[in-house]
């Protein structure tokens, strides 16, 4: 698990995405967490014990991939994209999964970004992560699209 600490940022629009390769099932596994306490108006993306991808904010799961369980032992692209116009959406391999969440609260976080663990380090990600990208100020995905097929450029 890694954490990043920085200056406060206005998260009116953002995208968090990465490729994940899960090695096991039956445990909650955190992909990223912007919280420092619970509940807090900062997001958490995790896979629950039923292999469902969840976007959690303000103390509740706001988006859940009810029909798209996250596969084990295969690379899967996951993304959460928040647009001030179209709301927050979650994508698995480029396809929107779950409902669109319209959140009136602008997220402010400058404390920490945890990757592969929640803010307490009690739910770790069991597997591999690659091409992790957190973009502030851009909702990269607002509709279904093809998942990236090559590494992200560094610009």
What is the CA–CA distance across the termini?
25 Å
- The chain-level mean pLDDT equals 84
Extended strand count: 13
Structural class based on helices, strands and sheet pairing = mainly beta
**Gyration radius from CA atoms, angstroms:** 14 Å
Major β-sheet strand ordering: 1-12-4-5-6-7
| Relative helix content | under 10%
**Biggest beta sheet summary:** 6 strands, antiparallel
Number of helices: 0
Q: DSSP strand (E) fraction?
A: 35-45%
Specify the overall morphology: globular
* Low-confidence blocks of residues: none
Order of helices and strands: EEEEEEEEEEEEE
Descriptive labels:
155 residues; 6-stranded antiparallel sheet; globular; 0% helix; 43% strand; mainly beta; 5-stranded antiparallel sheet; single chain
Topology:
Layout: E1 2-4, E2 9-11, E3 14-22, E4 29-33, E5 44-47, E6 53-57, E7 60-64, E8 75-83, E9 87-92, E10 95-96, E11 107-109, E12 113-115, E13 127-136
Antiparallel strand pairs: 1-12, 2-11, 3-8, 3-13, 4-5, 4-12, 5-6, 6-7, 8-9, 9-10
General description of the model:
The chain has 155 residues and is mainly β. It contains no helices and 13 strands. The chain has strands spanning 2-4, 9-11, 14-22, 29-33, 44-47, 53-57, 60-64, 75-83, 87-92, 95-96, 107-109, 113-115, 127-136. Strands 1-12-4-5-6-7 form a 6-stranded antiparallel β-sheet, with no helix packed on it. It has a 5-stranded antiparallel β-sheet with strand order 10-9-8-3-13, with no helix packed on it. The protein is globular, with a radius of gyration of 14 Å. The mean pLDDT is 84.
Task: Tell me briefly what this model is.
The protein has 155 residues and is mostly beta strands. Helix content is 0%, strand content 43%. It has no helices and 13 strands.
